[in-house]
Amino acid sequence: MKTILITGGAGFIGSHVVRKMVKNHPDMQILNLDQLTYAGNLENLFDIESSPNYSFIHGDITDIPFLEKLFGEHEIDGVIHLAAESHVDRSITDPMSFINTNIVGTVNLLNACRHKWKDVEGKLFYHISTDEVYGSLGSEGLFTEETAYDPRSPYSASKASSDHLVRAYHHTYGLPVVLSNCSNNYGPNQFPEKLIPLAIHNILHMKPIPVYGKGENVRDWLYVEDHASAIELIFSKGVPGRTYNIGGLNEWKNIDLIRLLCGIMDEKLDRVAGTSEKLITFVKDRAGHDLRYAIDSSRIEEELRWKPSLQFEEGLVRTVDWYLKNPEWMENVTSGAYQSYYSKQYGER
Ligand code: NAD
Ligand code: TYD
Predict the structure, then answer these.
(1) Structure pTM?
(2) Which protein residue's CA is at the shortest distance from atom 25 of ligand 2?
(3) Whole-angstrom Cα distance, residue 341 to residue 89?
(4) Between 14 and which of 82, 222, 245, 316 could a Cys-Cys bridge form, CB atoms 3.0 to 4.6 Å apart?
(5) How far apart are the C-alpha atoms of 256 and 214, rounded to whole Å?
(6) Which pLDDT band, with edges at 50, 70 and 90, does 349 fall under?
């Protein structure tokens, strides 16, 4: 039985990956290593926590003695590395935690694998990254796997740095690695500091929806389950040393996306059409705000036969339904640490 370590498995994308791996691979022992920062939440995994092939390990990837003990106690065959600080706005106010977790933490994991994996046959270190490492596009063009790195926020710079280190360990030490760079995800379990769940939260509570600048920045949105399927596929069939871009071919200006979401919420909440749109509030732009991200995912489509399965509107409706059906989840994550972070950043909303 193979043992697979998934880092950041209590977070948004990680919880969908853990669930998929636990359910689809009863022949694999899945270890979920997570520090449970504000973004990690074991409620995301209630339904699978007693599965025989699943265990949770509370720990921090910046803690080297902890990692040495973990790799000493378990024969780990593969790592799917998602643990990270993931929010651009937080990286602007507190870059050091991004340097520590995203760069130093990744190197610690690479070292643990390098020292442990004397025989690399059947081993794989899979690093999950973002399209933000490629920088910002103008109105034309798409990011390919060959696009030069040009990260522009502390978050994307920390992810770019970790990507380079993963590739360096492949070239220098022969560590078997694979990487993927994905566009913006949305769906259930996303912490309500990112645009879509924040807007759902605020619409529900009739609070202002903050839109940065003029709302003209463009993102390519992918439903989280589709990303998790791509990760499962790359982990089993990806070519070591290779990078795969993952995207939704689904570009939206922020303001158009928010208007679409407002329409869906008005219907779901039985509000008069146009009620939620009145909450849209243009606020000061994010510092260094990247204009546009868009992914060319032809490599994964052609080589691994992956495609997004959901239309955006259907994915948004599913997402809204999930948040409306899980008010306790929202209540739990929006109390405590989240509240103090937001009141410090923006005052009460
Ligand atoms: P998230 O913030 O929801 O979850 C991150 C998880 O990592 C949390 O459970 C947190 O507790 C854990 N973690 C943080 N620091 C840790 C540490 N030092 N040790 C152990 N665990 C720690 O993030 P997400 O949105 O699910 O993103 C997961 C990964 O996917 C990240 O690497 C991110 O860069 C990448 N990614 C995210 C998106 C997106 O749209 N969210 C898109 C592309 C790539
Ligand atoms: P976000 O969800 O933070 O993801 P990322 O910055 O990694 O792309 O933001 C998505 C887009 O929405 C981005 O252009 C910034 C914008 N945005 C707002 O306009 N208002 C907000 O309150 C937030 C959080 C984001």
Answers:
(1) 0.97
(2) 195
(3) 11
(4) 82
(5) 11
(6) very low
